[in-house]
Amino acid sequence: MRVLYMHATCVPPPEGSPIDRFELLSENLEGDILHPLWFTKPEEVEAAFGPGSYPVHTVGRFRYHWILEGKERGIRSRMTAAYHYLRKGVQIHREKPFDCIVWPPSFRMSSSASWAGIREPRNSRAGPRDRLRSNS
User: In this structure, what are the phi and psi dihedrals at residue 4, rounded to the nearest 5 degrees?
Assistant: First the structure.
């Protein structure tokens, strides 16, 4: 089974360690990981993971696809990350389709996406109690 894993944090994975979860999962699964990093330059990634590890780093049967976010945390970095996830996910799927997408519940953009899906219209004048009564 091929999976696409959308990583939630900017913390780099352990290198050369038997505790890397994707090294352990490689016995039964294969796939790609979309992973943001706090690095700002490809040279920093290659210094941490070895030459040729940017933009794709392979661990077992999994491939890490890095996005360089840096330490900036704002709407611009979130929009850049969302664009990267969408563009890279479609590209990977076209190359070799995956069977499952793993999107951790702590993923940064999940709350924004769920908020956008349940947002009330701006001209709604009903209060919270009125909405509850109309749903029952």
Answer: -115, 120
Q: Is the pTM of this model over 0.90?
A: no
What's the confidence (pLDDT) of residue 113? 44
CA distances 83 to 32, 67, 76, 95, 98, Å, are 17, 10, 11, 18, 19
Max alpha carbon distance in the chain (Å)? 61
Other beta carbons less than 10 A from residue 87's beta carbon? 10
E-strand spans in the chain?
2-6, 30-37, 56-59, 62-68, 100-102
Cβ burial 40-73 (10 Å sphere, 16+ → b, else e):
eeeebbeeebeeebbeebebeebbbbbbbbeeee
Please, is 80 exposed, middle or buried when counting C-beta atoms within 10 Å of its C-beta (0-12, 13-18, 19+)? middle
